[in-house]
Amino acid sequence: MSLIENCSVSGKNMALGILGKAKHSSRTQRIYRFFRDQIFNYDQVAKFILNIFANDKYIIVLDRTCWKFGKSDINILFLAIVFGKISVPIYWYPLEHSGACSSWLMEAMLERFINNFGVHKIKYLLADREFMGKEWLNFLTTKQIKFAIPVRKDMLIRITNALQTKPVGKSFDYVKALEYIEVRVCYGIMQ
Asked: Which CATH number fits domain 41-150: 3.40.50, 1.20.120, 3.30.420, 2.60.120?
C-alpha cells in the first residue's frame, strides 16, 4: 500500500509507509531485504494489482524502457494497466538487446494477460509506433483487441477496397490535434 500512497517504487519512499519506531534507514533496509529474499509468482502479483484497481475492463499499455546503469544497458518490455493518470506494470520482461522486440514476445506477454484475466477484460491496448508489424497487428485483430498505435502522417494506407494508397495524413486530415477517431483495421495489413 505504501507503493500506492507514495507513488514511488523507491525503497526510501516506500519505507515512509511503514509504521513503527525504527529509523528511516532501518525501514528502508527492511524493504530491500524483503524484495531481495522473495521469489514472486508474477501471475499472483498481477492478480493482486488488478484486484486493487478493480475495473470491468482495462486499458493495457505495452511499452519498452531503456536506460544505462553503470556500464550496463537496461532494456525492459512492460505490459501495464492504466488507472487514472498512472500506469501500473503487471508483467515485464528484460530484453538482452537494445532496439525493438519481436512479435512473438509481445504476443506471449499479452497471451499471459489473456490466460489469467480473459480478452474480455481488455478495453483497448495503447502502444508506441515502435510496436508496429504485420504479425503483431494481425494477432491483435485476430484476438479482436482494439488498439491505438500512433502512425506517421506519411504512412501509406489503403481505405476499404480502394485500388490506390494514400498517406494517413491525407486520409484523416479532418481529425483535429488531440482528437481521435475509431478506425476499423483490415486483415492483411502492411503486406
From this structure: 3.30.420
One digit per residue, the tens of pLDDT, for the chain of length 191 reads: 444 444 544 445 555 556 566 676 776 777 677 767 777 788 888 888 888 877 889 999 999 888 777 887 788 899 999 988 888 899 988 888 776 778 899 999 999 999 999 999 999 999 988 888 888 888 998 999 998 888 777 877 776 666 777 787 777 777 776 666 666 554 444 43
Residues whose CB falls within 8 Å of the CB of residue 34, separated by 6 or more in sequence, listed in order: none
Q: What is the pTM of this model?
A: 0.69
